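Human: Note token order:
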Amino acid sequence: MIETLFLLADLWLIFVGFFYGWLFIRRHKNYLLGLEWMVVGTSATNFLLWSLLSGGDPSSPMYTIAYFLDAFSRSFGFTLVLILGLMMVTHRYKPTLWAEIGAFVLAIAGGIFLVGLHEGGAYGVAPATFFAVTNLITSIFLFYFARRLWRAGSKGWAIATEMITLVAMLIATTYDFFPWPFDDAHRSWFYTAALATWGTQGFIYFKGYKALSERNAREDVAAAANKEGILS
């Protein structure tokens, strides 16, 4: 049973990462979120292949790739890049090309550095604490993002954003500090829950972004019509 649930959760994350990542780029021209979603999709794909083909063998090259992509997103990817990307609808932020490149270079550097600190299936206290802090900062912004959704009239997506962010905070806390005592040696139950949560995060945050983007577009049209009326 757990193998089937794990497979479904991983496939869900792969779908969300690539499909909604493509939509971020295609419909919203948001390369920060689009590329980060695709990084998550790539990470989920590698994780699935590593699990199926090598049984989670730590000597496999996919093991190193898995933890690099994990460190990439948990350091500055699904944290700094996520915040900057969401600010494009919360603050109408327009990042320069160099700002976008710089954010991803920082995430790559963070991934390379932090993966070197991973040993024996776990991170040390220092990197684990760093991940906890970046998750907390990101979560605070996501609660603000939810408040903006509520004020924009998208109350359903606002509540969904708050709930999935709380679940993701719980996952992040147990990731390094509190392993589930009932889990197996491969942490199958934990990773199944984590993959399902991360996929649902990607889905909900995209829908919330879309709702705010559409609200901004309506405001722009109304402002333009009002300006035209004044001038005429």
